[in-house]
Write a structure and sequence with these properties.
TIM Barrel; 6-stranded parallel β-sheet; 3-stranded parallel β-sheet
Length: 220
């Protein structure tokens, strides 16, 4: 394997500036296009200004376009990016960043050249070291709870102290603190801020309250 190009350190700084705006990044799955803007606005008004919209639904890309246009002041990322083709789609809809659940060599290489920063998903030290060779220093740790949780991230900090993480997967209001107190955790990702029942009921006030609770509790 030859590494032709490495990620410039300015890209790491760019990710830091996004991740440091929020302790909690809501991981959002949009089933109905008309929910996109009101849901995003509820989170934004509640004090959460970095959002990750997953590509798990057919309307996701259109939803991101609308949110980018309407939600001034929000950083909107595209999650569940699996291929360079999807990465390109994220660029086209104006994503501020891209998040992957796991990362292939093709994605690492594409991310080095892309104007949109990537938070690559890893769950092992070996995966992280592959990204390291390409110059990546910021990672999503997924699935966090079932991959060893906060203890695993703390242990990785020994040999790889420069790496910083956004753990996602199984994180709730109850265990978030365990992660956020670690020096190598920048922020956490969680789906508890947009519960399906609340979204289905269009309870945007309820979602705003959950956002406020998270923003107040985990403020820097």
């Amino acid at each position: 394997m030859t590494i032709d190009k490495q990620l410039p350190s300015s890209r790491t700084a760019e990710l830091d500036s996004i991740c440091l705006k929020a302790e909690v990044i809501p991981v959002i799955t949009i089933e109905r296009i008309e929910d996109a803007v009101p849901m995003g606005r509820a989170l934004l008004e509640g004090g959460i200004n970095v959002l990750e919209v997953t590509l798990r639904t057919d309307c996701a890309l259109e939803a991101i376009k609308r949110m980018k246009k309407e939600l001034v002041g929000a950083s909107i990322g595209v999650g569940t990016v699996l291929t360079p083709a999807q990465y390109r789609q994220a660029e086209e809809v104006g994503a501020d960043f891209v998040v992957t659940p796991g990362t292939t060599e093709a994605l690492y290489r594409y991310g080095v050249e892309s104007p949109v920063p990537m938070l690559p998903g890893v769950s092992t030290v070996s995966e992280l070291m592959t990204g390291w060779q390409y110059g990546y220093r910021r990672f999503k740790f997924f699935p966090a709870e079932s991959s060893g949780g906060a203890k695993a991230i703390k242990a990785i900090g020994g040999p790889l102290s420069e790496a910083r993480f956004c753990p996602t997967g199984g994180i709730t209001l109850d265990n978030a603190e365990e992660y956020l107190t670690l020096p190598n955790v920048m922020c956490i990702g969680g789906s508890w801020l947009t519960p399906k029942a609340m979204v289905d009921a269009e309870d945007w006030d309820g979602i705003k309250k959950l956002a406020q609770e998270a923003a107040e509790r985990f403020h820097h």
